[in-house]
Specification:
It contains 18 helices and no strands. By secondary structure, the chain is mostly helical. α7 packs antiparallel against α16.
Length: about 400
């Protein structure tokens, strides 16, 4: 790679920058039982390391978008990654659960790479082509959540729970180096003030199309975040899986997400983002319905649950790039703010579902409640997709009316 921070970034740089947040969120999941034991706390408190992280990301995405529209994508990502590295170090040296959770909140600054990679994609291209570029970025990025929990599980068994945070620290330093040396500024139309960008939020919130795309993204990813909140408990207490075994089964959803993004990158330009979102919703819904029926039938094998989770990843990989492209194309001059606001709604909903899953599941009620929670979330996503399709039909009908 030839590094040049004066030109548009290479796709590898965007992939690594976007992957840092998901890696920080996922790599330590197999270590949750070990973290619970190390800090002598409850499982619910340990689960806060997921929901608080997501809540922090939801807030930060409201900030990163306007800041990048004002000051540029490059400086915001660089500063955010430095802060993320500091948060990771705090997690490693933490002596109490409160200190560890504080480190997780600071670590959420890694999300700048993900939210701003979407805005950068919109800076470089537009329309269905933006969805295709986002799909390529997220397809490469999906290697982090696919391999992260696997490596985290084995590292936990070999060296303890801190090992996964050392892995995240190393990846964060690499991401910072690549962004610093290769990410040229892509925002050629900087806004006059951050206040103006924040004041633009009401304009976005009045857009029916924005809400359709944002709701689709929020509830599509909500199924995944519910899985994050309850998956480790299901693996450990219901199926008796070790950290490395949980990391292995976690690969199913990540492989599905990789394939879904591959499908999206290949055919979105032909069928359009709305049809791609609907197709993804249907894939997830059918997969979760099949999982629920299999569990009700009495199957006790871990594959009963984790195997069908593959379709959650596959459908989300088809849906989310198009939903992200739709969000930033509603108001192209507010691409960063739109991406940040939609991301905040997406992660805020995810934090809520993750917390609900963590607090409501137990070894007594099994995997079925989590499966039904995920199914309900994807039905809401489908309603969001159908809504935005209806709005666009109405707009086309208005435009086709003859002028009197």
């Amino acid at each position: 790679m030839v590094f040049n921070n004066k030109t548009a970034p290479g796709i590898l740089t965007l992939v690594v920058a976007a992957a840092l947040g998901p890696l920080a969120m996922n790599v330590f999941l197999p270590s949750l039982p070990g973290i619970t034991s190390y800090f002598d706390t409850t499982e619910a408190n340990a689960q806060l390391s997921i929901s608080l992280y997501l809540t922090a990301v939801a807030f930060l995405q409201l900030v990163f978008g306007p800041l990048s529209d004002k000051f540029g994508r490059r400086p915001v990502i660089i500063i955010a990654f430095i802060i993320m590295i500091m948060g990771t170090i705090i997690c490693i040296v933490a002596t109490t659960i409160e200190m560890f959770l504080a480190g997780r909140i600071i670590q959420a600054s890694a999300s700048a790479g993900l939210v701003l990679s979407r805005a950068i994609a919109r800076d470089l291209t537009k329309g269905n082509n933006a969805a295709s570029l986002i799909a390529y970025i997220t397809m490469g990025m999906s290697l982090a959540p696919m391999l992260g929990p696997v490596m985290g599980g084995y590292l936990d068994e070999l060296y303890g729970w801190q090992a996964s945070f050392y892995l995240t620290l190393g990846f964060g330093i690499i991401a910072l180096f690549m962004v610093y040396t290769d990410l040229g500024e892509t925002n050629s139309h900087k806004q006059n003030s951050v206040k103006e960008q924040i004041n633009a939020y009401p304009e976005l919130l009045r857009s029916r199309r924005f809400w359709g795309y944002a709701i689709t993204a929020m509830f599509s990813s909500g199924a995944f975040f519910a899985f994050l909140g309850g998956g480790s408990l299901v693996a450990n207490q219901i199926y008796g899986l070790s950290p490395s075994q949980y990391g292995f089964y976690f690969m199913f959803i990540s492989i599905g997400y990789l394939l879904g993004n591959l499908i999206s990158s290949k055919i979105t330009t032909r069928i359009g983002i709305n049809q791609m979102m609907l197709s993804g919703n249907i894939v997830v819904g059918l997969g979760l319905a099949a999982a629920a029926l299999t569990i009700i039938a009495g199957s006790k094998h871990p594959f009963t649950f984790f195997g069908f989770i593959f379709f959650v990843g596959l459908g989300n990989g088809m849906t989310l790039p198009s939903a992200s492209a739709g969000v930033v194309n509603v108001r192209p001059n507010l691409a960063g703010s739109a991406s940040g606001l939609a991301g905040s709604l997406q992660l805020g909903g995810g934090a809520a579902l993750s917390a609900i899953a963590g607090y409501t599941l137990s070894s007594q009620n099994g995997a079925l409640p989590l499966t039904l929670m995920m199914l309900a979330s994807i039905i809401c996503a489908m309603l969001g997709t159908l809504y935005v399709m209806r709005v666009e039909r109405q707009i086309q009908q208005e435009l086709s009316k003859p002028n009197v």
